[in-house]
């Protein structure tokens, strides 16, 4: 249990619902949202916001344009997506040079929105984008709503996914050469 959570007077069961939270001298029940980590991982998992507090927490202020509500400004806190997924053990083939570059990360939210990232975007050896799994927004915990995908580098908010329900790591993408017909047409011309 994190020190901040322990000091706040809250009681948390990390691997089950419901969460009991003290507010105004009364205990109330909060059902924890769960996020499924799946795909090409050695250790797939189902995580809650309290589980995500086990990783180092980062804070970021973001501004982005939203097509439906204009400019948005928020403060988020949470672990880096890279840290969480690296601990889940992506199934990179150590015998293949640059194997991790073919891995894609699909994120799904409760409202049906999806976002796709490449492993290279979040990997410190490549773009090292500070993508977070936000566990709080503007100092409000997201225990019941679920974590948010936060991309501070994006000017448009389209890839900010609320209430993440699933993150799938997929290394099945294989880049192939041109289709045989396309190669034959190129020779004929």
Can you offer a commentary on this structure?
With 189 residues, the protein is an alpha+beta fold. The protein has five helices and 13 strands. The chain has one domain: Alpha-Beta Complex (Sulfite Oxidase, Chain A, domain 2), CATH 3.90.420.10. Mean pLDDT is 82; it is low at 1-25.
List the helices and strands and how they pair.
Layout: H1 3-7, E1 19-23, E2 26-30, E3 35-39, E4 45-47, H2 49-52, E5 58-66, E6 70-78, H3 81-87, E7 104-109, E8 114-118, H4 119-122, E9 132-134, E10 136-137, E11 140-141, E12 148-150, E13 164-170, H5 180-188
Parallel strand pairs: 3-13
Antiparallel strand pairs: 1-2, 3-4, 5-6, 6-10, 7-8, 7-13, 9-12, 10-11
